UniProtKB/TrEMBL annotation:
<keyword id="KW-0547">Nucleotide-binding</keyword>
<keyword id="KW-0067">ATP-binding</keyword>
<feature type="compositionally biased region" description="Basic and acidic residues">
    <location>
        <begin position="20"/>
        <end position="50"/>
    </location>
</feature>
<feature type="compositionally biased region" description="Pro residues">
    <location>
        <begin position="77"/>
        <end position="88"/>
    </location>
</feature>
<dbReference type="InterPro" id="IPR051272">
    <property type="entry name" value="RIO-type_Ser/Thr_kinase"/>
</dbReference>
<dbReference type="Pfam" id="PF01163">
    <property type="entry name" value="RIO1"/>
</dbReference>
<feature type="domain" description="RIO kinase">
    <location>
        <begin position="96"/>
        <end position="359"/>
    </location>
</feature>
<keyword id="KW-0418">Kinase</keyword>
<dbReference type="InterPro" id="IPR018934">
    <property type="entry name" value="RIO_dom"/>
</dbReference>
<keyword id="KW-0460">Magnesium</keyword>
<keyword id="KW-0479">Metal-binding</keyword>
<dbReference type="InterPro" id="IPR011009">
    <property type="entry name" value="Kinase-like_dom_sf"/>
</dbReference>
<dbReference type="InterPro" id="IPR000687">
    <property type="entry name" value="RIO_kinase"/>
</dbReference>
<keyword id="KW-0723">Serine/threonine-protein kinase</keyword>
<comment type="similarity">
    <text>Belongs to the protein kinase superfamily. RIO-type Ser/Thr kinase family.</text>
</comment>
<protein>
    <recommendedName>
        <fullName>non-specific serine/threonine protein kinase</fullName>
        <ecNumber>2.7.11.1</ecNumber>
    </recommendedName>
</protein>
<keyword id="KW-0808">Transferase</keyword>
Length: 362
């Protein structure tokens, strides 16, 4: 195969005085004057003077009566030092609502406050809480003004919590066997990998299992009317859910999100304490009817959003039917919450609550 492509035949000019051999000289070398004349003939007036001013748009008039920036030859080139407004900035990403499968989104009906448009941006605002197995981040999902069609009058936005689970190598949750006993995964090879503690794939599947367990439990509990955050979606080891709290605006007009306090910090009145107890026992009853025990229920995993209680942190939900430790876990949950309410003057019985929940489960 030749190293270079063959030259066109028009470039191989045969002359009599060279015995028919091709003349490989360039056109300027063969006929300098003729080449120069042809080149000048091809040069137009526009090449020398530029386009006629009548074809350009006049800029603003200068202070001296002149044209100032007289000619605008088109849109300005983008400044490479400035961020591109059409792309997510630092700490941002496009909404992942459409990128996950339908079964990985929250249950229907979706709340009115949830933003699901493709033009929405997820902006990470900061960390809310660090835990033994995951960290929780505050995320704003918002559609910028004028996005997509330019007819958006008011920006759509909502606040979410992104709970991101760590791998087993970086987690601090060491009581996993007590909670995962009896759990099954979809694929048997994943189940075998999880049983092998030395397998990197098994550790990755185990980390995903915690996120899956919480998302599935939240879906079922929210659909059944339990006081839990709305589960927005799950993507790998990240669970997006409703932010429970309020937004406060200071005198300077700055808005700050304030998460609802944990129940352990509250000192409710007697009437509110009774209301909290009714809400909590209702949530525990719904859990039991679905065959679950929370597994780590305490005043630290219950939010007091005004007069409303919200149960959070459900990755360790226990299956009451298949887990051999389920009764012990459920009794521990009952005793923990009853101790807190009894310390604040409400007469409660942990053993009676335990018996009632077992009756609801079976």
């Amino acid at each position: 195969m030749p190293r270079f492509p063959e030259a066109p035949k028009s470039a191989l000019i045969r002359t009599a005085n060279r015995g028919g051999k091709p003349d490989v000289r360039s056109a300027p070398e063969r006929a300098p004057k003729a080449w120069a004349d042809a080149r000048r003939a091809r040069v137009s007036r526009d090449d020398l003077e530029g386009p006629h001013p009548s074809t350009l748009r006049a800029g603003p008039t200068g202070a001296d009566g002149g044209r100032g920036d007289a000619y605008d030859a088109g849109p300005a080139r983008p400044d490479p030092t400035q961020p591109d407004p059409t792309q997510p900035g630092p700490g941002q990403r496009w909404s992942t609502w459409r990128s996950v499968a339908k079964g990985q989104r929250g249950p229907d009906p979706q709340p009115d406050w949830l933003v699901t448009r493709d033009a929405a941006l997820d902006t990470e605002l900061g960390i809310l809480k660090t835990g033994k197995e995951a960290d929780a981040f505050l995320v704003e999902r918002a559609v910028p003004l004028g996005a997509e069609t330019g007819d958006v009058v008011e920006a759509e936005r909502c606040l979410l919590v992104a709970k991101r689970y760590r791998s087993l190598d970086h987690g601090q949750f060491h009581r996993g066997t007590e909670y995962t006993e009896g759990r099954q995964v979809r694929r048997t090879r994943d189940q075998r990998a999880m049983e092998d503690r030395k397998s990197a794939w098994g550790r990755a599947v185990s980390a995903t299992q915690w996120a899956d367990a919480e998302f599935v439990a939240l879906r079922e509990l929210w659909s059944a009317g339990a006081p839990v955050p709305y589960p927005v979606q799950i993507d790998g080891t990240e669970v997006l859910m409703e932010f429970v709290g309020t937004e406060v605006t200071d005198d300077a007009g700055r808005t700050q999100a304030v998460a609802a306090p944990r129940l352990t910090r509250e000192r409710p009145s007697d009437d509110l304490l009774e209301s909290y107890w009714e809400q909590l026992t209702h949530g525990m009853t719904v859990l039991a009817r679905l065959g679950f025990a929370h597994g780590d229920l305490s005043p630290y995993n219950i939010l007091a959003d005004g007069e409303r209680l919200v149960i959070i942190d459900l990755p360790q939900v226990v299956d009451l039917a298949s887990n051999p430790f389920a009764s012990d876990v459920l009794l521990r949950d009952c005793r923990t919450v009853c101790t807190w309410f009894a310390a604040r003057g409400l007469e409660v019985d942990a053993d009676a609550l335990f018996a009632d929940l077992l009756a609801q489960a079976f």
